[in-house]
Amino acid sequence: MNTEWVSSVVSRAQVHAALGEPARLAIVDRLILGDASPGELGRDLGLPSNLLAHHVKLLEQAGVIERSRSEGDHRRTYLRLKPAALTGLAPAGVRAAPRVVFVCTRNSARSQLAAALWKRHSRVPATSAGTDPAPRVHPRAVAVARAHGLSLPRTRTTHIDDVLRPRDLVVAVCDTAHEHLGTAAPDRLHWSVPDPVRADTDDAFDHALHELTDRVTRLAAAVPPSGDTR
User: Fold this and answer.
1) β-strand 65-69 against 77-81: which pairing, if any?
2) Where are the transmembrane segments (predicted)?
3) What is the pLDDT of residue 32?
4) Which residues of the chain have pLDDT under 50?
5) Can you give the pLDDT at residue 182?
6) What tens digit of pLDDT does each residue of 63-107 get?
7) How far apart are alpha carbons 106 and 195 in whole angstroms?
């Protein structure tokens, strides 16, 4: 018997078993479109901390979710779906939004790349902004975008206060922006994407683009065009 096939079947069975409990499925549903801290999950789902910890542990063991440390305050932990763990299970048409705004701190890399990717996958309008914009888009972000057939402006960055509208769906693509926004953008998703500028290497920017591509593809399936571009 093919050992790789057996291993694949065992792994898939573990995922199905993990999702066979309503609370764990609810956790996965919450994480499909955006990351969350354990506290945020417990609050959203009404689960006590001890029960949440039990379900999270089983989902981790099944290879469905993983933890990451906040790049913002360095104390918070965020839970996220592992890339491709649930390929094809993104809910379709579950979020209504006339526009999507991708936000990071400097608006120089992740948010710019996410908006460019979004325009490739969805007809819903999108833009990007920062909570503390840099003077220009990072040159490595421009280069990695060009290498993948995307186009980024070289100098145009924007503060979120200058672009945000009441009905926008905000996607914070970094921990710091998510933590700084607070209640300023209540309809918000959070993607805990590591900052490629910190490493400042081509590999770091390629990795960020790859992760953003997976997440944008998932979210685009869940936000149908409404025809309302205001």
Assistant:
1) antiparallel
2) none
3) 87
4) 1, 5-6, 92, 227-230
5) 83
6) 899 999 999 988 999 999 987 676 555 554 567 899 999 999 999
7) 10
Domains, the chain, with CATH or none: 3-81 (1.10.10.10), 100-222 (3.40.50.2300)
pLDDT computed for residue 156 by the predictor: 87
The tokens of 222 are what?
């869940």
CB 33 within 8 A of CB 189: yes
The residues, ordered by sequence, that sit 6+ positions from 170 with a Cβ below 8 Å of its Cβ are: 100, 101, 103, 160, 164, 181, 185, 187, 188, 189
In this structure, what is the dihedral angle of CA atoms 183, 188, 192, 198, given to the nearest 10 degrees?
Answer: -70
3 state SS for the chain: CCHHHHHHHHHHHHHHHHCCCHHHHHHHHHHHCCCECHHHHHHHHCCCHHHHHHHHHHHHHCCCEEEEECCCCCCCEEEEECCCCCCCCCCCCCCCCCCEEEEECCCCCHHHHHHHHHHHHCCCCEEEEECCCCCCCCHHHHHHHHHCCCCCCCCCCCEHHHCCCCCCEEEECCHHHHHHHCCCCCCEEECCCCCHHHHCCHHHHHHHHHHHHHHHHHHHHHCCCCCCCC
Which backbone phi and psi does 95 adopt, to 5 degrees?
Answer: -125, 130
> Distance (Å, rounded) from C-alpha 217 to C-alpha 220?
5
Q: What is the pLDDT of residue 134?
A: 96
Amino acid identity at 187:
D
Question: Radius of gyration (Cα) for the chain, nearest Å?
Answer: 18
Tokens representing 92 are 């379709």
Nearest to 112 by CA among 144, 80, 73, 81: 144
